[in-house]
Write a structure and sequence with these properties.
heterodimer, A: six-stranded mixed β-sheet, four-stranded antiparallel β-sheet, B: mainly alpha, 24 helices, about 80% helix
């Protein structure tokens, strides 16, 4: 999915969460959104998912303005917050089933796909457990399985690497992100972990105090940093503290 | 027909495969067995809980039957009471599933048609409220076995009354949803409004005669609204039975205050997210193309995920009205009128009708205290007029002193806790500052009009001659019950005066003006009656009260109009 943000601005009272943010993401790109706490990362993802609206500016998906009430557009994306809400009274299977039904992804071959994913994320024994009995990491895995099985064009993930998933889950997540990008899916995820972002993402969007400080490939960001260990961290800090 | 929200075949197939695969793993066999066991135990639990509740209903009725001190009227009263209590329970469960369920958070992130969400939550709410149905069924079965022919007749009467009530509410709901024949809606809503006390009070009246004297003390400590039952009990002992009707408005006020409770804090904000987006779009001046942009994607979406703007609008109205249905009379009336508002106006009205503590909490608190104090004054006045008068005066003074700072606070500090009350709003494209400003303005206007009224009325009635006290008790309750109605229409009058959407508001205006005229005429009649039966000072007091009543709509308009809509205009201008 081709995504364009045009001067997107969002305020919460007097706080400017996003300040005229503009960038463009091409299909198949994996973008890591970096920034300190309160920088505006989650707000950006929420706006892209339609959970929050913009005060100004516009978002275009494949050239078409994004409107939350347009269910056709929303079916092309899925947003996982850092605490993804499940249907607590339903089983894991039913939770996944509802998502697949809404994304029209419960056709032929869905059983095999889900079965493989449940096994990969070590969720088979919990398939019939109620969602409210799951730990945070397990709940995130369930949401992730539903996302991967539904396979929408745009994946939006808030802090997936700090979601309580075990190393097995994180490793599976990385594999699926790479595979999805290969299939032309566009993926945005927020994180605080520079090294992980570097390993997974094609591009990095650095946000500080609501403003976009950098939006470039990991390679070019690395070139800007001086050689040596921790150079990327130093560059990150410098960019973050730069005047807008 | 609503499509299934999940694919049952897929799930069944998956369950079987998962069971088989887990069985292949030696250390997972216990989990494999648990997969099947969980499904079976869920069904068993549901069956057992239903049976338990049915048994509870039977036991309750049997207890009433074997208690010799209960007369037939007391038994009927008990039945009515149980029915009423079951209805309240049902309403609460339904409301929780519709507006407070954590499921709504999950739905908010999924591309689901709001109608499907609403229908599913409604169905779950109905399933969840089987407790109430179980009790009712138990009551019916036991009565069928134990009662005589006349007892059966009473049961049928109660059931018919309940059916009539439900039918009326449903009809009003449907009519309002589909926006047909506005005057007819008004008639139906008015019928509902005025018939409400009959349906609630008549059974309670019967209940108190035979039952309350025996078990009132226990019940008053056990039941959530036991304090009001105690007040009724005291009233029944102190007043002749025919004067018990004086307390009708007290109970109506209690029910109203229940309806006003901001129990829907987290409710519609999520379901209404598209509406809020509309509000944002309006703010940006992008509203005209909303209808076009919300058209479903061709060929790829079924009714589960498709949405069109007019349809979505109707669904949202329906969502409000389901809430109304489940909530109670005042919120029902509120939300019926909300159907006429534009999305943005509806949002604003929603926010400061239910969210801000400045209005809701203080208003509810004042209404409850006034109800109790006035009722207490009426009861005590039957034995000693002096005590009754002083109770009224002290109540008025207490309410004034207790609540005025609450109104004054926002005015002095220019702060409001709207954000804290409704964190979801922060996620939405609504200017928080605007809401905060509106909150205290609205509170100030209401407080400014309410406080002198309370003070003067209390003082005026306190100065009445003993003979006129009973008359004024009646009049006071009548007028206090008008307050919520005046509130509704005054609000609409304030809102509608400055909107450009004149067609939509024409009817509201008409009703508001009718009400104001009604208030004026009613006030005049009130004053004339007061001059006949009471002395000069009470005449003065009621005249002042009447003036304040009449002034409320203008206070609203002066307080809100300009600043509110200036605020909206500034938003649009700054967005442009």
């Amino acid at each position: 999915m081709h995504i364009q943000l045009q001067s997107v601005t969002k305020r919460y009272g007097s706080v400017r969460a996003l300040d005229a943010v503009s960038f463009e993401i091409l299909p198949g790109q994996v973008v890591a959104v970096l920034g300190q706490n309160g920088a505006g990362k989650t707000t950006l993802l929420r706006i892209l998912a339609g959970v929050a609206g913009t005060d100004r500016g516009e978002i275009l998906y494949d050239g078409e303005p994004f409107r939350r009430e347009n269910l056709g557009q929303r079916t092309r994306l899925r947003f996982l917050p850092d605490f993804p809400p499940l249907f607590p009274g339903e089983t894991v299977l039913r939770n996944i089933g509802i998502v697949l039904r809404l994304y029209d992804a419960d056709g032929a071959g869905a059983e095999e796909r889900i079965l493989a994913l449940l096994e990969e994320f070590d969720l088979l024994p919990f398939a019939e457990a109620s969602a409210h009995t799951l730990s945070r990491g397990q709940a995130y895995k369930v949401a992730l399985v539903s996302l991967i099985a539904a396979d929408p064009e745009l994946w939006l993930l808030d802090e997936p690497l700090a979601s309580g998933m075990d190393p097995l889950g994180i490793s599976a997540f990385r594999r699926h992100v790479k595979a999805a990008a290969g299939r032309g899916r566009t993926i945005l995820f927020s994180t605080q972990l520079l090294d992980t972002a570097e390993r997974i993402a094609d591009r990095v969007a650095l946000i500080s105090r609501g403003a976009l400080r950098a939006f470039e490939t990991v390679a070019s960001l690395r070139e800007r940093a001086t050689a040596g260990e921790g150079a990327l961290d130093a560059l990150f800090l410098r960019l973050r503290d730069e005047a807008p | 027909m609503t499509p299934a929200i999940h694919n049952a075949t897929l799930e069944k197939d998956l369950r079987e495969r998962i069971g088989r695969r887990l069985l292949d793993l030696p250390d997972q066999r216990s989990e494999a067995r648990a997969v099947g066991r969980n499904a079976r135990s869920r069904k068993l639990r549901r069956f057992l809980s239903g049976a338990l509740l049915l048994g509870l209903g039977c036991a309750l009725v049997y207890f009433v039957q074997v208690t010799p001190s209960l007369q037939p009227s007391g038994r009927l009263g008990t039945l009515c009471f149980l029915s009423l209590w079951s209805t309240i329970l049902w309403r609460g469960v339904l409301c929780r599933h519709l507006f407070q369920s954590p499921d709504l958070l999950a739905w908010a992130l999924l591309p689901a048609n709001p109608q499907v969400v609403l229908d599913r939550q409604l169905r779950r709410g109905l399933n969840g409220s089987l407790a109430a149905h179980g009790i009712l069924l138990g009551v019916g079965l036991t009565l069928g076995l134990a009662w005589s022919f006349s007892g059966w007749g009473a049961v049928v009467g109660v059931v018919l009354a309940a059916l009539f009530w439900v039918t009326l509410r449903s009809s009003a709901l449907l009519m309002t949803v589909w926006r047909v024949l506005a005057p007819l809606e008004l008639f139906v809503w008015a019928t509902l409004w005025f018939s409400l006390p009959i349906f609630y009070i008549a059974p309670l009246r019967l209940l108190f005669v035979g039952f309350m004297n025996e078990y009132g003390d226990i019940l008053s400590y056990v039941l959530p609204f036991g304090w009001i039952l105690r007040a009724f009990e005291a009233a029944q002992r102190a007043l002749p039975p025919e004067n018990l009707l004086l307390l009708l408005p007290v109970f109506a006020l209690f029910m109203i205050s229940r309806g006003l409770l901001p129990r829907l804090k987290s409710r519609l904000v999520i379901l209404e997210a598209p509406l809020l987006s509309h509000a944002g779009a309006t703010q940006e001046g992008a509203r005209p193309d909303a209808g076009a942009s919300s058209a479903p994607a061709e060929g790829t979406q079924d009714s589960l995920t498709s949405s069109s703007s007019p349809e979505a609008e109707r669904i949202r109205s329906r969502a409000f009205l389901y809430a109304a249905w489940a909530q109670g009379p005042l919120s029902a009336l509120d939300k019926a009128w909300l159907a006429w508002l534009s999305p943005r106006q509806r949002l604003l009205v929603e926010c400061f009708l239910w969210a801000p503590p400045g209005l809701a909490r203080v208003w509810i608190s004042a209404a409850k205290t006034l109800s109790i104090g006035f009722a207490l004054g009426a009861v005590l006045g039957q034995r000693d007029q002096g005590v009754g008068r002083w109770t009224w005066v002290l109540t008025a003074a207490y309410v004034t002193l207790r609540t005025f700072p609450e109104f004054l606070g926002p005015l002095l500090t220019s702060r409001s806790s709207v954000g804290a009350e409704m964190p979801q709003l922060i996620l939405q494209p609504v200017a928080l500052r605007e809401l905060q400003g509106l909150t205290w303005k609205f509170s100030w206007a209401l407080g400014a009009s309410l406080m002198p009224l309370v003070l003067l009325y209390g003082l005026g009635v306190g100065c009445l001659s003993p003979d006129a006290l009973a008359l004024h008790t009646t009049q006071a309750f009548k007028w206090v019950t008008f307050l919520p109605l005046a509130h509704q229409f005054s609000l609409l009058a304030a809102v509608s005066g400055t909107t450009n959407d004149t067609e939509r508001f024409r009817f509201s205006w008409f009703v508001a003006i009718c009400l104001i005229i009604g208030l004026l005429l009613g006030g005049l009649g009130f004053v004339l009656r007061a001059t006949i039966y009471t002395d000069f000072w009470s005449w003065v007091s009621v005249a002042v009260v009447w003036m304040f009543w009449g002034a409320i709509p203008w206070v609203y308009r002066k307080a809100f109009d300009r600043r509110w809509f200036d605020c909206c205009r500034k938003d649009r201008a700054s967005s442009a």
